[in-house]
Specification:
The complex is a heterodimer of chains A (about 220) and B (about 300). The longest helix of chain A has 15 residues, at about 75-90. Chain A has helices at about 75-90, 100-110, 155-160, 165-180, 195-200, 210-220; strands at about 1-5, 10-15, 15-25, 30-35, 55-60, 95-100, 115-125, 185-190, 205-210. Chain A has a 9-stranded mixed β-sheet with strand order 1-2-3-5-4-6-7-8-9, sandwiched between helices. Chain A is of the alpha/beta class and about 220 residues long. Helix content of chain B is about 30%, strand content about 20%. Chain B is built from 10 helices and 10 strands. Chain B has an 8-stranded mixed β-sheet, with helices on both faces. A two-stranded antiparallel sheet of chain B has the order 7-8. In chain B, a hairpin with a 2-residue loop joins strand 1 and strand 2. In chain B, helix 2 crosses helix 3 (about 115-125) and helix 5 (about 180-190) crosses helix 6. Chain B is globular, with a radius of gyration of 19 Å. Classes of the chains: A alpha/beta (about 220), B alpha/beta (about 300).
């Protein structure tokens, strides 16, 4: 990995080079921003995260922003969880803030890396719902998607159809709650509640709180 | 010193033709047996397998008058490695290969994961599939371990952490080299009922010889994982609505790679006229273990190719 002049670090996730942007330098535990489906990292610290006392970073997922774009698709949310894990390998322990798709990926990462994720804030944004709790009628893309990206058109298609059963999501929430050692492992700020998120919000160790409250909650813990 | 590299096995035949199909930017190796003009049948191999595991089974179908078309899934066998792998991508690749053969409906045979993908193929594109043969590729809830929620949470957390550790180190990873015998012994742990000669042959077609030894060709970035949102009952739920004739062959001997599915698990979900055959003395890799028996079942099910 290397740091370029514009404070963007390149971290590798297998064959893909990911862009990890440093939005604000400071001492303390980093906050890592995860964008929604089709989005890219913000260029500056968003106003609603300005109260975070430590450094703020933002990750472009595979096929988004200035991260690498694979050939031929093959996206799934657990792969983006491994994108975040590649960023955590660089940052160390961090608090996650996820929008939409990024909120679901933040949940997965919090459950899979409970020792590295020091709280995750799940907020509204594109791709929050995914493909629902069960598979939809199967559909096969007939031709190569050669729409120019980013975002990668395969990511837009595949990550809007991924299945998110409520009890799958709560498994990650329980792992985060029981294995992180935090009193509150997850903060749900999203007003929209697809089934996976409604189930997560009802779990022990999960607090429903607005963005400002969520930032304050993990800033002091 | 002369080292014998080619291993023969009774009945095993290299493909009559090998060609490439580019699917969504990924080059796939397609292997064919039989006359080009004969009616086609497509074969889909299982996860972590490769098309040339059909080297005995496919010639039996070709001999009966079929053009047999198999392909290596992305990252498997002689196909190109991809940055990402997913079920949906494998399904798109299957359609691309079949598109390269015919736009008319054809019979499709799928083993294990290839069976699951071809069930989805048939459900998504019923006008493209004349007959569907599923070779031990219908996982059931029976295969899920019966453990408490708390235990499941810990098990899955461990599995996820291991998988993420693997992803962190996937770049530059290579498969463990060995002699043909050593690779055959490793494969034999998953195929405990195969003869040594058959296993040695499989190494020479599924592996390649590097300066430091033989390696399986499969992308070392691929790793078996036991998590994800997918549920066995979702595949089962696609069966009742299938419109084409269905033959399901189950290997009933319990094996690490198998699903443990019994006829009673799928019988309630069968579409009208479907056939289920359970092979009592056979493991998960039914067509590798019992090629003649499975070929006869398939040929009887498909009827005359003309």
């Amino acid at each position: 990995m290397s740091v370029s002049g514009d404070a963007t670090v390149r971290v590798r996730h297998s064959q893909i080079e990911l862009a990890l942007h440093r939005l604000r330098d400071a001492d303390g535990r980093p906050l890592l921003h995860l964008h929604g489906l089709g989005e890219r990292s913000p260029v500056a610290v968003p106003d609603h995260l300005a109260a975070w006392p430590g450094p703020v970073w933002a990750l472009d997922f595979t096929g988004h922003g200035v991260s690498g774009m694979p050939v031929g698709g093959g996206y799934f949310c657990e792969l983006l969880m491994a994108d975040v894990d590649a960023a955590l390998a660089h940052l160390g322990a961090a608090t996650l803030y996820g929008r939409g798709l990024g909120a679901y990926v933040a949940l997965l990462t919090a459950g899979a890396r409970p020792e590295l994720v020091r709280g995750a804030i799940l907020d509204d944004g594109p791709g929050l719902r995914g493909g629902g709790t069960e598979p939809t009628t199967p559909y096969v893309l007939p031709e190569p998607l050669d729409t120019p990206g980013p975002p990668d058109p395969y990511a837009l298609f595949e990550l809007s159809h991924d299945v998110r059963p409520a009890d799958y999501a709560t498994t990650y929430a329980r792992q985060a709650a029981t294995l992180s050692g935090l009193d509150v492992a997850l903060a749900v700020s999203a007003r929209v509640r697809p089934p996976w998120l409604a189930a997560v919000a009802a779990e022990p160790g999960v607090r429903e709180v607005d963005r400002a409250g969520a930032v304050a909650l993990f800033a002091v813990s | 010193m002369t080292v014998i590299e080619a291993v023969s096995y009774p009945g095993a035949l290299a493909p009559d033709r090998t060609r490439s199909v580019v699917s969504h930017g990924i080059r796939l190796a397609v292997h064919e047996w039989g006359e080009m003009e004969a009616p086609p049948v497509a074969l889909a191999h299982g996860g972590f397998d490769f098309a040339r595991t059909f080297d005995v089974f496919a010639p039996m179908l070709a001999e009966a008058g079929w053009r047999v078309v198999a392909w290596d899934q992305r990252g498997h066998g002689d196909s190109e490695r991809a940055a990402l792998y997913s079920w949906e991508a494998d399904l798109r690749d299957a359609v691309a290969v079949v598109d390269s053969v015919t736009r008319d409906p054809l019979p499709i045979v799928g083993h294990s994961k290839g069976g699951g993908i071809t069930v989805q193929f048939a459900a998504a594109l019923p006008h493209r599939v004349s007959h569907l043969v599923n070779l031990d590729g219908l996982p059931s809830r029976r295969s899920m371990p019966d453990v408490s929620d708390h235990e499941r949470t810990k098990l899955m957390a461990g599995e996820l952490g291991t998988w993420l550790d693997f992803r962190r180190s996937a770049l530059g990873r290579s498969r463990k080299p060995g002699t043909i015998d050593e690779l055959a012994e490793r494969r034999g742990r998953m195929n405990p009922r195969l003869s040594r000669e058959w296993l040695l042959y499989l190494v020479t077609v599924g592996g390649r010889k590097d300066p430091d030894g033989w390696r399986w060709k499969i992308d070392p970035a691929l790793r078996m994982g036991g998590f994800g949102p997918w549920r066995a009952q979702w595949a089962m739920a696609r069966l009742p609505g299938l419109s084409m004739p269905l033959l399901a062959v189950l290997g009933l001997q319990p094996e690490a790679m198998g699903s443990g599915t019994q006829p009673i698990d799928i019988e309630p979900n069968l579409p009208p006229g479907a056939r289920v055959v359970g092979l009592e003395d056979t493991g998960h890799f039914v067509h590798i273990e019992q090629p003649r028996r499975v070929a006869d079942l398939v040929l009887d099910f498909l009827g005359s190719p003309r």
